[in-house]
Design brief:
single chain; 113 residues; mainly alpha; 1 helix; 95% helix; rod-shaped
Length: 113
């Protein structure tokens, strides 16, 4: 192997030191960029999570309001049906009473003849 003189050795050492410094700088830069990107990603993820929670809460509130409105509407419909049914029963009872009265009157008149 050829012998290196002092200047060649100095140049080699300086080259190695420069290469290590440049490599270290590149590694530091990209490590820092990865940390910044990770922080930005986490912030965006937290904001998205907050937005999802807000949307879910709004959806829950809307569903509760819709269910409550539906329940009220169904209660009103049930009351209307109940009232109509009672009215029908009352009319039916009156009609049956009238028919029974007519039958009794017909039977009474038959007995008279």
């Amino acid at each position: 192997m050829p012998k290196l003189n002092l200047t060649d050795t100095k140049v080699l050492i300086i080259s190695i030191v420069l290469l290590l410094a440049i490599s270290g700088g590149i590694m530091y830069y990209f490590d820092n960029r990865i940390k910044i990107s990770n922080e930005e990603f986490n912030i965006k993820l937290l904001l998205l999570n907050k937005q999802i929670v807000t949307n879910l809460n709004q959806l829950q509130q809307n569903l509760e309001e819709s269910i409550s409105s539906l329940k009220n509407n169904l209660s009103l419909e049930m009351e209307l049906i109940d009232t109509s049914l009672k009215s029908f029963r009352d009319k039916n009872d009156r009609d049956l009473a009238a028919i029974n009265s007519l039958i009794d009157e017909i039977e009474r008149q038959s007995d008279i003849k």
